[in-house]
Design goal:
heterodimer, A: mainly beta, seven-stranded mixed sheet, four-stranded antiparallel sheet
Chain lengths: 113, 113
């Protein structure tokens, strides 16, 4: 257990539904990242927060995706109008400052049927 | 665009063997390089972090090296054990987006008793 908590761990949803994932970071970590990982591939960067500010978004993050980190604590990743291609594991990672070890949560598996 | 490649994609060795996993990256101006372990269906566990100013890091039976000039990193595992079976991912930390990580595709390691 790295101390980064993600919920739910598994979500099965019908195409077109909205889903939301939550990440609770290690308390003193000011940097938070979301990644997406499909089977057999390495994780791909989605977005980055420093405290409550969203400072970077990947082109992978279409307008159906939105992420927030109110008050610089927990973060949510919402996917609207889900598509089958959204099926993946969504990973949250956190750290403090720059150049330090990045800690990942256990991930949230999404299956869109 | 930074790219990270890991060779081999899969490796099977008998218990007790010493082994080397390879990682190459295109961005010579990396901030740091991190090696992770991932068990099936789980999140990532950080193994070793090498800053760009360092040449290697060691933890127990693991040793990771970094050669920025050639764009290569290696993870050396001594006296492999069945419990080492997992996917090993290397990730380059860049200067942008809070040192966001760019991952390779991973090496799936199986250590046979």
């Amino acid at each position: 257990d790295t101390g980064v908590s993600q919920n739910p761990r598994h979500k099965i949803t019908k195409r077109g539904q909205n889903v939301t994932f939550r990440c609770d970071p290690i308390s003193e970590h000011n940097r938070l990242y979301w990644y997406r990982q499909t089977l057999g591939q390495g994780p791909e960067f989605l977005t980055y927060f420093q405290n409550e500010a969203q400072l970077e978004k990947s082109r992978l993050l279409s307008d159906r995706f939105s992420a927030e980190r109110p008050k610089g604590s927990f973060s949510t990743l919402e996917i609207q109008r889900t598509e089958q291609g959204d099926s993946a594991m969504y990973l949250c990672a956190t750290t403090w400052g720059s150049g330090n070890t990045i800690y990942f949560g256990e991930g949230s598996w999404l299956t869109v049927v | 665009k930074q790219e990270v490649t890991q060779i081999p994609a899969a490796l099977s060795v008998p218990e007790g063997e010493n082994l080397v996993l390879n990682c190459s990256f295109t961005d010579s101006a990396i901030y740091n390089l991190q090696w992770f372990r991932q068990d099936p269906g789980k999140g990532l566990t950080s193994l070793l972090l090498i800053q760009s100013s360092q040449r290697e890091q060691t933890s127990g039976r693991l040793n990771a090296s970094l050669d920025k000039s050639s764009g290569r990193s290696t993870l050396y595992i001594a006296a492999s054990q069945p419990g080492d079976s997992a996917t090993y991912l290397c990730a380059e930390g860049g200067w942008r987006a809070g040192n966001m990580l760019t991952f390779g595709g991973g090496t799936r390691l199986m250590v046979k008793p």
